[in-house]
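Q: What does the assembled structure look like for these inputs?
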Amino acid sequence: MDPKTAMYIAQGIHGLAYGMILFLVASGLNIIFGMMGILNLAHAAFFMLSAYFCFQFVSLTGSFWAALLLAPVATAFFGILVERFLLRQVRGLGHMAELILTVGVSLVILAAVKIFWGTESLPVKIPPLLTGLVSIAGMDYPVYRLFVIGMALTVLAIMSLLLYKTRLGKIVRAAVSDAGMVSALGINIPLVFMLVFGIGIWLAGIAGVAVAPILTVFPGLSDQVGMDAFVVVVTGGLGSLSGAFIVAIIFGLLSSYGVQFFSQLAPVLMFLFMAIVLAIKPTGLFGERE
Amino acid sequence: MTNKVSKWVFWLVLVVILAAYPKLFGLYYTNLFVTFAIFALFSVSFNLLLGYTGLLSFGHAMFFGAGGYGTALALKHIEGLALLPAVLIGLLSAAALALILCPLVVRVSGTAFSMLHLAFGELMHVLALKLRNITGGEDGIGGFPIPPVSIPGIVSIDIRQPENFYYFAVVCLGISLLIIWFFTKTPFGQIQIGVRDNAKRIDYLGFKVPQTKAVVYVVSAAFAGVAGSMYALFQNLISSAALNVLTSFAPITITMIGGVGSFFGPIVGSGIFQVIEELTSRYTEQVELVIGLILILVIMFAPMGFMGAISLLKQTWFPSRTARVALKGAS
Amino acid sequence: MFWKVFIPVVAFAVILGWGLPLAVAADLTKANASFEVNKMGDMSDFDPNKPVIPTGDTIKIALVASFSGPAALVGQIYYISVLWAAHDINKRGGILVDGKKKLVEVIKADHMGKPDQCKKICERMVLQDKVHVLWGTDGSHLMKIINETANKYKVIAHNTASLTDDLQDATNFSRYAFMSSFSTDQIGRGLANYYGQRKKEKKFYILCQDYMFGHAMAAGFKKGLKEFYPEAEIVGEDYHKLFLTDFAPYLTKIKAAGAEVVYTGDWIPDAANLLKQSRQMGITLPFAHIFLDEPNFLHEVGVDGTKGLVQLSQMYTDNPYFKTPEQIKYYKMWNDLWKTKWQAPFNTKLFEHGGGNIGSYNQQTYWLLSVIERAASTDPEKIIKVWEGDTYRFVNGKTLKMRPCDHKAIQDLYVAEFVVPDEQKVDFNIPPHHWFTGCSYAGPSAKIPADKVLPLMDEKLDRCKGKNGWGE
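A:
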């Protein structure tokens, strides 16, 4: 393969990898919004928190795999606490109260992270199994980035199975369209909400662990991904998982091919795309609800 | 003493305090007051949109920034431009931006409205960073000439003197607040409350909902522009930071702390916020922790903010539906 | 190839004013004052975790920096550097100013990275805390505000860390502002000079952050290549946004462009992520840089990954680094305290040697204090009089001169190549004969004489009209 084609293919895979990370963050946001109507502005902070947990578990156990398992769960646990003891208390006060509350939570997480881990960048190494390069059609590509793509797809598959094949999924989908009715059927809605919030944060946690070895872990870690994930959710349509998936990939590709061809404009492309989509369809590509 | 007389006394005392303020508190607190007043106007303009139409904007910084850049660019490039026209250019730039966005935004409400503004706000921010030749990027436009306030042949006041700037800012911001106040008291303003509470009914009554929304939107943007313009003059600098998400969130948190449903809420909120900032920056490096905790506590225990808490106290004595209306405004 | 379309035609010859200094009148062999280790106070009780800050009638220095938010680390680095100098002076009994011995008080002033907060905090420092010096800072847009405030209220602004040249140009120059750091134009031209001397690599790729500083760094390098290495080729030029997550698209482009060296002005965390991700992708190109010297993450990338990096630093000198017993004594004073006394966050590898940027901020602060001592006053006019044209020798033997007309520091610059631990003894000539074991670090250095990299002088600035590059 000539080097130019190889470069274009590589850019495509970079785009997919970044898109998948975006999707993991965005999907959690989306599930929480779709189910609970809460725009969780602390989502990116949880994402960062998970990266810090990942660092902590790696230094404790020496194993990235243990961290991959434990860090998102630990993050989700904190998410559940926030839902149970804070968010649940302000339900009924409206969106604005929830928004401000989540902003408050994100600030507290940022402060906590700095108190416990300091402000220096912390290292997380790629596990030995996933280091190095693999040759695809005569082109070297880092194994770890392929692993990230694979992991995101696996999570997507699990999520779809959970949503469409289990009782919990049925309840969740029913509650999205009419929470009152589901509640009248005797289902414990608060419990379901708590679970859903936990799962959403867990997804952000997975993404946090996935990026930790690519980036250094530091207090501004979530700035870009957090904003990008928001844009993904809004453009794809609030509450639409498939919308988030498609737009995440589009944005991933936009960012890598944008750098390739219109480097000067790359940061604007995503917002331009969003502005155009929203101008035509204010609810986003696949969104129905406001 | 009748109610009317006590009102006059209140205003008189207020004017006297404001006039004596720089002498009483010194330069540093005078400048702090100007910051307070700028953010009070910014938040009131934001709350005009939220409290009176129920539209929550995540991108109000773009109007603030448009006002600032409008004034700064005008003063930098137009030789001999007087001060008030420069402020007016700030107002008009913000209003023009709002007019351009109008056809698009009046169609949406709720979360879509918020998100759309987050999008446009961020687009403006990135553009300000990218169009370095015009906006100066991160460094911004600084050191532009600031003309004196003058009535030709009679008086000319150099407002680069902090104390003079204080009087200029207080007058400008005060007049702006009065205009907004009267705007909400007109029958038109009352229709707005109707739009917020029950848009359909207003529609049936024969008022055009999108158009009335559009008017409030533009007015709100215009006064955010005035705030931005004063901010640029005060700092003698306007940079991309004025357009970022944090700036958009400032009026949201200020309004929330002060109280959403009331006209004075954001003004009180801005004052509280300045005090909090002043105290945290003096006594702790954990600024995020303190502000985060305050936000959480306010929402948990005083969701209607300071003014809400006051009216709740009042309500114990004079039951009314103020609090309930205010609550609705928040949702 | 497609990318070639996007390589901008090399920009205009931006030789803004200063003609080549043909007859160099001044030199840097003599210094008006120098840092003397033997006069130092007893530092054994210095602990940045438990600072001893005198109050009352003192010489007050406001440390304007980010102490909160994502960039809080920067504030910590400045803090230990400045506090050390202040502690030392205080242990010596203070400085005689205006007929009275006074101690040095360092006050933290958090600008939180925000322009309006920066203005507010500077005004508070000047109006309420009555500081004599505003010391700053990360971010040239914030340094501008510091300089303006200092100018307005007539106190000294000491710039040790903001590197853009326009801070001292005709528009922004203030008599009260002094820039004792190097600047973007010097850095860019200095590195270009280095490559022009060694003529090993020919194809350069420029990757900088997309804001004023990044563009200024790139412009300096391009100008330098034209001047010192005309046969070099710039095979690509990109500017990425700050705090970027994914560098892979840029790296793929760089690789395809056939670059031999990547020139970058990035700072941590961008610089760290750039290097880390390139090594993960199997791209082993060397980076020419100024901020890729943070040891914690260099260790993460490892010895092989960091080999061949090229750094220009204000603290590098001729090999070897340690030249006098005093210098070794000074080094050990810091290093011993680091080993035994300091707690988090000051106990990581970043603070081990007290060199690099930390050493530079520290020595620049000593210069400021020396100027105040010789002015024997905190009166800004007297300080200005002493500092203009002053020369000062750092602990490592390097001498800096404050150009009188525009208050920029003239100095020799050094570029060092990073080598594996075993080869670091050419520079680190005392036991254990290497800077670090887990990563490559400064080895052989090359000198770029001051007259080759005089700081950019703005001819439009009245004070500089008709002066040569040395301001004479």
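Chain C is about 35% helix and 20% strand.
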